[in-house]
Amino acid sequence: MASRRALLGLVMLVPGAAAQSPLGGSAPLPPLPPLPPVALATGVAVAGPGTWRVDFALDSGTPDAGQAAAIGRLGAALAAGSVGRVTLIALASAGDEISTHRRLALTRALGVKAALVAGGLPETRIDLRALGRTEAARDSVDILAPTAPRP
After folding, report:
1. For the chain, what are the domain ranges?
2. What CATH number matches the domain at 39-144, 3.90.550.10, 3.30.1330.60, 3.90.76.10, 3.30.428.10?
3. What is the pTM of this model?
4. Please, are residues 57 and 99 in contact by the beta-carbon 8 Å criterion?
5. Which residues of the chain have pLDDT under 50?
6. Could you tell me whether strands 126-132 and 51-55 are parallel, antiparallel, or unpaired per DSSP bridges?
7. What separation, in Å, do the N-terminal and C-terminal C-alpha atoms of the chain show?
């Protein structure tokens, strides 16, 4: 038992065996290569580094067939080329009540999530943020890759 502990202690002292930051945690992993380009559809556009925006008609709650196919391709690329959580930020400007905005935003986020999952992204890697109406007054869902800056 003592020799096993000694061997473990030696392994821990070998430089590079377990890279640690000066604060005691693990060193950050090297960045993943950029995601491959994905063919997008009308209403789906790049909104920034690692971010895509799906635009919706004022009263629409689900992506159309072309958008769903493009979102599925994004899901496949995110599943194969990223590690970590994907965040969906859903906005809605239709309706007079706050609850109407939030429900419509949630419906949109769930539709985009379903398309990402259909493309191969595990649903356990997707976080939803149905914000409803914001100052931006957009009707959209933003898809944020794990490496994208969070608002």
Report:
1. 39-144
2. 3.30.1330.60
3. 0.76
4. no
5. 1, 4-21
6. unpaired
7. 51
The pLDDT, as a whole number, for residue 33 is 63
Amino acid at 107: T
State residue 27's pLDDT score.
Answer: 64
Amino acid found at 116: L
Is residue 41 exposed (0-12), middle (13-18) or buried (19+ Cβ within 10 Å)? middle
